[in-house]
Amino acid sequence: QVQLVESGGGLVQPGGSLRLSCAASGSIFSMYHMGWYRQAPGKQRELVATCFSGGNTTYAHSVKGRFTISRDNARNTVYLQMNSLKPEDTAVYFCNCVANSGLGPYNYWGQGTRVTVSS
Questions:
Q1: Helices marked H in 15-111 — which ranges?
Q2: Of residues 91, 6, 94, the one with CA closest to residue 43
Q3: In sequence order, what are the beta bridge partners of 112?
Q4: Which residue, 28, 34, 39, 105, is most buried by CB atoms nearer than 10 A?
Q5: DSSP β-ladder status, 77-82 and 91-100
Q6: Tens place of pLDDT per residue across the chain (119 aa)
Q7: Is 26 helix (H, G, I), strand (E, B) or coil?
């Protein structure tokens, strides 16, 4: 089993910045891609950014140029630096990873951390 624990959410004014962190722990034989999703009230969960094991990254069009995803492979930790935040970035942000804990690749989710962008 793999556990994901997010931190770093909170309330920020428009134009501000936040940095989310997500640490994976447990029995991890291999960590594949790690990323972030978000779910705004009344909307479906959507992909924000992904960082693949080789270092390649992908971003949702709505956050490209404002958000940066990075990972520390030694610590099985993924980060999301969010700059120039907008009210429409308000959502619960979920950490996601695909990891092998001995039974093959499996999709894991964190509990979520709330980000509120408001003046």
A1: none
A2: 91
A3: none
A4: 34
A5: unpaired
A6: 899 999 999 999 999 999 999 999 998 889 899 999 999 999 999 999 999 988 899 999 999 999 999 999 999 999 999 999 999 999 999 999 999 998 889 999 999 999 999 99
A7: strand
